[in-house]
Amino acid sequence: MDDGTLQLIDRAVNDQPQSTVTVLSSLLAIEDAIGYIPTEAVEAVAARMDATVNDVWAVATFYPNFRFEPPTDIRVEVCWGPSCHVMGATAVIAAAQESLGLSDEGDTPDGKATLHYNTCLGACAHAPVMAINHHLAGRITPDVARSRIAAALSSNPAH
Amino acid sequence: MTVQTESSFNAILEEARRRWDNLTAGDRPWIRVGTGLAGEAAGGFEVVAAVKAALEQHQVAANVSEVGTLGLCFAEPLLDVQTPGGPRVFYSQVTPELAERIVREHVAGGDPLAEHAIGYLGTQAQAPPGIPNLADHPMMALQQRIALRNAGNIDPSDLHQYIANGGYAALNKALTEITPEATLGEVRTSGLRGRGGAAFPAGIKWGFLAGNPDPNKYILCNCEEGDPGAFNDRGILESDPATVVEGITIAGYACNANRGYIFIRHGHNQPIDRTRAVIQQAYDLGLLGQNILGTDFSFDVEVALTGDSYVSGEETALMEAIEGKRSMPRYRPPFPAQVGVFGKPSNINNVKTLAYVPEIVARGGEWFAGIGTQPDPDNRINGSSGTAILCLSGDITYTGLIEVPLGMTLRQVLFDMAGGVPNGKTMKVLQTGGPLGGVLSASDANLDLVLDFDVFRAAGAILGSGGIIVADEDTCVVDLTRNLIAFCQYESCGKCFPCRMGMSHLLEVLERISNLEGTEEDLALMRNIGENMQAGSLCGHGQLGFNPVSSALRYFGHEFDAHIREKRHTGDCPDQVFSPRLTRR
Questions:
Q1: Which residues does chain B have within 8 Å of residue A142's beta carbon, measured at their own beta carbons?
Q2: pTM for the full model?
Q3: Which of A145, A159, B339, B407 might form a disulfide with B334, Cβ 3.0–4.6 angstroms?
Q4: What is the C-alpha end-to-end distance of chain A, expressed in Å?
Q5: pLDDT of residue B575
Q6: B20-140: which CATH topology?
Q7: Per CATH, which fold does B167-369 belong to?
Q8: ipTM for this prediction
Q9: According to the model, what pLDDT value does residue A159 have?
């Protein structure tokens, strides 16, 4: 791991704005800073919170928003909660899978994009909802999902 | 610090009013754009950028604010223009191109674009030609906005705008005119019942905490809101977080508590950022912190974040998450009012519950108690005072966030206000109260249900969080029920095995039935699993987790029969069932 990332982890853990600092708040701060939770981050949180590495792993693995490998450039989230389901989320998910060449959630083989299923993105009135790199878009049809994902893929050239 | 004898509130109020007058009747127009989560999903941020670019391009001076949601989510992005001293003219489903035209013709040229306007808000005398009064729109006309009184009207990140519109008068009154006991008395008199789902009287709950002599006590505000189909808590925090910050402060005063947490799911940025902004301003103005408004009452509030976990919304799991742990429910007793967060006595209220508090204290508990349904002991109706804050989504003409007096019927809400099901289809299913709530048929009897906590419970549903998902005739109830149970399986925290195993098992059975491979025995098997979950689970997730199935069987048993006996689908079920699974390790 490079020094820059280690510095970002250190800053995320030690410069939290709120007064109540916990294992969970530290992990969320790291996720915001670098997009994933590497082993070094778990160790940094354990040291800061006077907890064991096991305690920190227990929290990190409980919440499905944490990932443990470096993030890809494009994070595609599709909601499958009941509002979105009623409005056609199943077809949107199928379209997203097809566009990304995936059969389930996860990273694409080229490491460029990630598909993540979300249980609620919070804009139910505009169901079905998807988000690309945390930017919400509502009333998504399979065609719109395909074109938005294609646009995101072409604006982020492969590594 | 010296304790002043007179409240410093008047000076704050004067400054707030000066700023507000300057915005609404100053020397330049005021443009407000909805950028809540629904606004964002509809493209609200692109509209804000287009407005700013057009102002620059046409060299027009105007104030631009991002507001939360007026509740007319179907119309987002919703943009309104108020020329100095004039009415607000609202434009719906605004695109960046239309935004540029609005700036050019209306803001700069003074001519409203009647053909694109959904309505105006202002006096009759101000009515612009050819534009209807937005207050007469079906989604607005029957509303009574108490908790949502400022939503869509003020910049949610500007505490002065909240104060100019009556904010903090209640806290000032409580601190300077009435005692903590009298403040608690007003909430008790109001009959306010908790809006998180259980509908427990808030005044009684506060009384448990007020009666505890511990010097360190906490008030927790729950905005976890993982309920799909419910977005009212986030809607309030992204539109008017200050009413919740004032409400939690008043709760602290009434219960003699000294610290508050507002608990929000990580990633929901508008509610988080806007709540943090007004908390900071409240500290700067002496409305939080030491010796609030110069009195001897001190109270601190901060935002606490959780990761993705629906069960975090359960009150003891919420305390675990605030402490930074895996959000799994605790055993009770001890109850939170004895041993809560960090081992200290705590009270937990939902966002909506606390959002009502300032108006209850300002106007008196009697006023609030006069709104809603009255007790009817013969029918085991305890009475539900105040309003219901409902989120309408799914197959419905007008989706959105509305606040209506309790006692209104579902028919009034779904047909008179929300315009029924679009495209000439028939309304079939009402899914209420979140994934642990009910799957009701849109029968005449159910549409005539009045919005009342006990009436809903008797019908096998929960009014609770206020989410109503409408589904039309094309929806297969077995498939919808499977989706709800898939959600419940995904979100089971795993602590109690009847819930952890039961949800997985139920989902297997429902997938089998969805795929037309179910057997007669499956119905009895599901009931057996449901009974075990209810008896053997620590929290509502497992205890209520069978509700979607039991209510679906009650109202749509024939659809399960069709799948099992006749091997046929009862709607446009997908070819392949989609049920993500998750085991929380």
A1: none
A2: 0.96
A3: B339
A4: 18
A5: 66
A6: Glutaredoxin (3.40.30)
A7: Rossmann fold (3.40.50)
A8: 0.95
A9: 44
CATH of segment(s) B380-472:
3.10.20.600
Contact B471 A86 (CB under 8 A): yes
Average pLDDT over residues B495-519: 95
The Cα of A32 is separated from the nearest Cα of chain B by a number of Å equal to 9
Residue of A nearest to B474 (CA): A86
The whole-chain average pLDDT of chain B stands at 94
Strand, helix or coil for residue B512: helix
Q: Which residues contact B523 (CB under 8 A, 6 or more apart)?
A: B553, B560, B564
Nearest to B480 by CA among B229, B231, B230: B229
Instruction: Find the CB nearest B74 among A62, A64, A125.
Output: A125
In degrees, rounded to 5, the angle at the alpha carbon of residue B342 between the alpha carbons of residues B337 and B345 is: 15
Choose among B41, B484, B487: nearest Cβ to A138: B41
Partners of A74 in beta bridges: A113
How does pLDDT run across B472-493, given as a tens digit for each residue?
A: 999 999 999 999 999 999 999 9
Which of residues 85 through 104 in chain A touch B, CB cutoff 8 A?
85-87, 90-91, 93
| Closest Cβ–Cβ partner in B326, B431, B490 for A82 | B431
CATH 3.40.30.10 range(s) for chain B read 20-140
As given in the structure block, the two tokens for residue B53 are 């670019």
Dist. CA B301–CA B279, nearest whole Å: 7
pLDDT at B271: 95
Where do we find the tokens 């905490």?
Answer: B209
Q: Select from B38, B300, B435 the Cβ nearest to the Cβ of A123.
A: B38
Tell me the C-alpha distance between B109 and A129, whole Å: 37
Is A22 in Cβ contact with B324 (below 8 Å)?
Answer: yes
Contact B231 A23 (CB under 8 A): no
Interface contact flag, A66 B37, Cβ < 8 Å = no
Boundaries of CATH 3.10.20.600 in chain B? 380-472
Q: Do A24 and B324 touch (CB under 8 A)?
A: yes
Q: Where in chain B is the domain with CATH 1.20.1440.230?
A: 477-564
Residue B472 φ/ψ, nearest 5 degrees: -90, -175
Q: Contact at 8 Å (CB) between B358 and B170?
A: yes
Per-residue tokens: B517: 């491979």
Collapse the DSSP code of B375 into the 3-class scheme (helix H, G, I; strand E, B; otherwise coil) and give the result. Answer: coil
- Beginning with the edge strand found earlier in the chain, give each strand of the sheet holding B79-82 in spatial order: B63-67, B30-34, B79-82, B88-91, B117-121
Pseudo-torsion of CA B447, B449, B450, B454, nearest 10°? -150
Pick left, alpha or beta for residue B311 (phi over 0 → left; psi -120 to 50 → alpha; otherwise beta): alpha
* Residue A64: closest C-alpha in chain B: B308
State which fold the B477-564 domain adopts.
Answer: de novo design (two linked rop proteins) (1.20.1440)
